[in-house]
Amino acid sequence: MSQELTKEQVCIITQNRAEIWMDKDKLPMILAAIRNETGLIEINGNYINPKHIEILTAQEMENITRRKNGQWQCKWGKWHEQRQRCLCRFDHLTGEELARECQM
Ligand SMILES: [Zn+2]
C-alpha cells in the first residue's frame, strides 16, 4: 500500500473493484446518501453507485493485501510469511512454562 495515511482513511471499493480512499470524517455523509438512496454519489471527483460499494478500513485493506501476498494471521493476531512457522506461543508462555518447553 503506497498510500500515505495522515488522517484516518477508509477505502471505498466500487462495483468495478476500483479503490477510492477518503477521510473517515466523510463517512457519515456517504452512509446518509446510501440510506436515502440519493443515486450516484461523488467521492474525489468520481461518481459512484452507493448500492454496490464496500467500505473498508485501512487495516482491513492491509489484511487483504497481506493475504494476497500469501501471508497468514495466526491465532495470536500476528502475520507470518507463507512458509513461516508460527512460534508466537513461546511469546505467551510464562517463565515456568518456557523452562518446561526447553527441557523437552
Ligand atoms: Zn504466530
Q: Mean pLDDT across all residues, rounded? A: 89
User: In total, how many domains does the architecture comprise?
Assistant: 2
Global geometry: elongated
Query: Helix and strand string, N-terminal first?
Result: EEHEEEHEEHH
Helical content stands at 25-40%
DSSP strand count: 7
What class would the helix/strand composition place it in? alpha+beta
What are the low-pLDDT stretches, counting only 5+ consecutive residues below 50?
Answer: none
Ligands in the structure?
A: zinc ion
If strands are numbered along the chain, what order do they take across the biggest sheet?
2-1-5
Rounded radius of gyration (Å): 20 Å
